Amino acid sequence: xxxxxxxxxxxxxxxxxxxxxxxxxxxxxxxxxxxxxxxxxxxxxxxxxxxxxxxxxxxxxxxxxxxxxxxxxxxxxxxxxxxxxxxx
Length: 88
Ligand SMILES: [Zn+2]
Hints:
The structure is a single chain. By secondary structure, the chain is mainly alpha-helical. The protein has a domain of 53 residues: CATH 4.10.640.10. 33% of the residues lie in helices and 0% in strands. It contains 4 helices and no strands. The longest helix has 16 residues. The chain is flat, with a radius of gyration of 16 Å. Bound molecules: zinc ion.
């Protein structure tokens, strides 16, 4: 059997810590106004990252989703990002 390395793809979003950031640090509050915090939970295209990538617990993911959606309506976060040369 011939061993082949898979071709280098688009770099995946790697999150090292698999602990819920909000459970870990009680001082971090999920708030729709703290867009800086929320941006770390959305992808390049503005999509909400799944729990399996961020390690957020179900409870906090739910709160996060609501916060991100609120922030989008207030134009603090994008719904989508338009990048013409981004091949999908
Ligand atoms: Zn949590």
